[in-house]
Design a protein that fits this description.
about 200 residues; 7 strands; globular
Length: about 200
């Protein structure tokens, strides 16, 4: 089975380098305008509950049924939400979080461990269900954080969490032939479904 793990298109917060977690922003005019239909047409695409993934999936896969996976939502950035690193460079809680490798508990938000645990549990359940049903293709449109959590945990060759974030409107194609045996995936290639190739 092949898995397409894709990131949503650009939003205004993304363009402004602001932390965007659970704020339910739509795609920006630019982000929406850059997206093009994908080069394959799944019957179903799995999305997070947030508008930016729903809108991206509709642009990439206009004929697909969308199914929402609540735990594919982005990380909860708590008090950092909607702010850029420049806005917070003198905020003690932000400095502490950054100095700790961005792993710790965000005030009023999530820790990296909690975010990765919920994301990966939802991903495992979906992969298992699709394989058991004899599926040959799994398309997911979610977030940069979703990609990073899943790929760090399961994909060969191994990479650090932050090395895995895909481009807007793009992401990773994975081979699941080893999944049942050892819960690993193999990276096949990267893809991007935007007019210019990059945003």
């Amino acid at each position: 089975m092949k898995i397409y793990l894709l990131r949503h298109g650009e939003t205004e917060y993304n363009a402004q380098k602001k932390y965007l977690g659970l704020t339910d922003l739509p795609l920006s005019k630019r982000g929406r305008g850059e997206l093009i239909p994908a080069d394959f047409s799944p019957e179903t695409v799995y999305v997070s509950p947030l508008r930016r993934t729903v809108e991206t999936a509709a642009a990439l896969f206009p004929n697909a049924q969308q199914i929402v996976i609540p735990d594919f939502r982005e990380m909860d950035f708590g008090i950092f939400e909607g702010k850029s690193y420049l806005d917070m460079e003198h905020l003690p809680a932000y400095r502490e979080w950054v100095d700790g490798g961005c792993l710790g508990q965000i005030p009023e938000g999530e820790s990296m461990a909690a975010f990765s645990a919920r994301t990966c549990a939802a991903f495992e359940a979906l992969v298992n269900k699709t394989l058991e049903a004899g599926g040959e293709l799994l398309a997911i449109t979610a977030h940069g954080g979703t990609q990073m959590a899943v790929l760090e945990r399961y994909v060969l060759p191994r990479r650090d969490y932050y090395a895995w974030q895909g481009p807007y409107g793009g992401g990773f194609v994975l081979d699941a032939s080893r999944w049942t045996a050892d819960r690993t995936l193999t990276l096949l290639r990267t893809v991007q479904y935007t007019k210019g190739g990059t945003l």
